[in-house]
Amino acid sequence: MFDDLRLPLGDWVEAGVDWITANLAILFDFVKSVITGIYDAIEYVLIEPPELVLILVLAAIAFLVRGWKMALGTVIGLFVIVLVNQWDNAMATLALTIVAAFFALLIAIPLGIWAARNDTVSTIVRPVLDFLQTMPAFVYLIPAIILFNVGVVPGIIATIAFAMAPGVRLTELGIRGVNREIVEAGSAFGASPGRILRQIQLPLALPTIMTGVNQIIMLSLSMVVIAAMVGAGGLGQPIVQSLQRIDIGLGSEAGLSVVILAIFLDRVTNALGSLQDHSPVAKLRARRAAADAPRPAVVEPDMVASPTAETEAAAAGGR
Amino acid sequence: MSEPSANGDAPIVDDIVVRVEHLTKVFGRRAREAADRLAQGASRDEVAKLGTAAVIDASFEVKRGEIFVVMGLSGSGKSTLIRMLNGLLDATAGSVDIQGEPVTGIDPKRLRAVRRSQVSMVFQHFALLPHRTVLDNVAYGLEIQGVERSKRLELARAVIERVGLSGWEHRLPSELSGGMQQRVGIARALCADTPVLLMDEAFSALDPLIRREMQEQLVELQAELGKTIVFITHDLNEAMFLGDRIAVMRDGRIVQIGTPEDILTDPANDYVAQFVQDVDRTRVLTAASVMEPPAAAVPVTMGPRGALKTMRDMQISGLLVTGPGRTVLGAVKDRDVLRAIQKGEHDLGTLVDASVPTVSPDTSLADLPELAITSGMPIAVVGEDDRLLGIVPRVLLLAALGNVSTDTSEFTIVDIPPAMDPQLVTQTLDDTEVSDVR
């Protein structure tokens, strides 16, 4: 009985996109050239140097944030990528991920802060995020292609839209979750809202915000692979190829490379969120803090809250 | 620190620092309407549909150098009240001003200026910045005031030393015990160097022994620095110990404002009366509140015969003897006076035993029993210049204490110092018996 009724939603969207292409071409060209420029630069840095140099650099990063075990794992994992002949693709994917995650963070964190401080913004942003997060990822590729043509940029744009949501949510959650009394203390001593944000809310929300950063990076990586369908290079390309040719060999080699990259990125960003006591960076900081703060000469024994262990001092420095 | 009561310790200059007038706070979307109805005399329940009335028509004044305690159970509105004093919450109606500067109805920028210059706050759960060292936490107020770093750290170090935390400057708050964290909280508030200090249940999260210590330290600091303190608590003993004056709150209204003694001896209504039943009276009541007019005292000029006659008339065995200007010279006993009369001496002054116990009017009742027992004489209450104000006879003291034990569920024997010598007691009683026979 509803046969005659047809909601022309698709037509409207199409008309809207047409209008945008016709009228906002300058804006999109600008966005496109900015993103392409940044991507090319990063890809150049990642692909030009010999594999060994990059492997050592990435292993060094792993060592600094986490320790030698992580560094060893990184070296082994990256060598596997080299050995299955996916190195260039992997670096292209890494570059895509870095660019997409960077822009997603650039939008997500300020938006999250705004939403945390303003209930109206929060109410508006929430359904938008629901929409962005649940829309099937492929759908983003269609308008992206129309607006930016085939290539790297539509892939990155679609990735940004897809990966942004958890960053906004976790930033808002983190800031709203900061102990109310501590925020009150800031106001009670006459601090301005900006100062409270900088000195109290952001530092205390940092672990949650870093979880958001981690989520954004992981989602970017997964979306970047899908974006190969619109011509963004990288590990997505052999995967799409192998899907078309039912080439299980190629598919598993490229897939494994994605997994190795994912694990590396996840561990590194996680470690950044909570620099652990035994990471070399944390130890360095603890030593510097200890040098700044001479031990108390006399400590009344009954006033000691907890015995001063080496680990505590390290933990203090790491925070 | 040894003074059990804060009353009268601090020099209270009679000018008003915090003035609160008809302050009302209603939470809810129709708060203003509710506040108007409350002002017209509606009850809290009647406006419940419009909003939750947390504070209703509170008015009081806090004088310079005073510890003003706001006491009430949870839900009585005391936390809301204190948060309106520094504008953390907007008042729905009424006004607050601090040293003549309004806190209510001003723009945020001006409010921040008032907070920086006039009023700092200590929080129940300390509210220290966990990522900063003790030193940086204490200096926080000065940092916001824009004091240069080296200068503010120097000031902070001085305050840290004053609250007894030297050596802990570079630790993080999480490395400190609760009591020490709250000392940091107090140091932070003191370091901001504002005339007014708001303390929101500042000691409630601490365990009892530490709480006691902190209360004593606060009284000491206050006497030293002369801050004006508004202290919120739900603990009546704490209120009685700290408060120069106490406001008792119930269901958003202030039901009584008075000194601890007023509230104890003259409760405004049954609610307050019931509330104060549990308080440890000996720590609140003072010698002045139980002393009697000095009937059993004679001027030295009266001579031995006059003294003995007074004793016979009053049926007592001893008298206080006063000199010029009603200063206490000491006491005489009937035996000695009798002997002197038999020997024909005429100077009462030579018979006086100067070792009579004297106390000041604000000595707490808890300190009196030991004196009464060891001396066997009534205790003389003297003001400045040794002028005799009154006496606390032993019987009266026992009565006052007896009253406590019937009224109070938690009166413990610990308050009477255990250092009593049983032999002395017996001897004193013997003496009394002998003289009574005569």
Automatic annotation (TrEMBL), chain A:
Residues 90-269 form the ABC transmembrane type-1 domain. Gene3D superfamilies: MetI-like (1.10.3720.10). This is Glycine betaine/proline transport system permease protein. PROSITE patterns: ABC_TM1. Residues 292-301, 308-319 have a biased composition (Low complexity). Residues 292-319 are annotated as: Disordered. It is found in: Cell membrane; Membrane. InterPro entries: MetI-like, MetI-like_sf. Pfam families: BPD_transp_1. Belongs to the binding-protein-dependent transport system permease family. It comes from Agrococcus baldri.
Automatic annotation (TrEMBL), chain B:
It holds the Pfam family ABC_tran. GO terms for molecular function: ATP binding; ATP hydrolysis activity. GO terms for biological process: amino acid transport; glycine betaine transport; response to osmotic stress. The keyword Oxidoreductase does not apply. Gene3D superfamilies: CBS-domain, P-loop containing nucleotide triphosphate hydrolases. Residues 291-348 form the CBS domain. Keywords: Amino-acid transport, ATP-binding, CBS domain, Nucleotide-binding, Transport. It comes from the Bacteria. InterPro entries: AAA+_ATPase, ABC_osmolyte_uptake_ATP-bind, ABC_transporter-like_ATP-bd, ABC_transporter-like_CS, CBS_dom, CBS_dom_sf, Gly-betaine_transp_ATP-bd, P-loop_NTPase. One of its GO terms (cellular component) is membrane. Residues 18-276 form the ABC transporter domain. The keyword Transport applies. NCBIfam families: proV. Belongs to the ABC transporter superfamily. This is Glycine betaine/proline transport system ATP-binding protein. It comes from Agrococcus baldri. The lineage of its organism: Bacteria, Bacillati, Actinomycetota, Actinomycetes, Micrococcales.
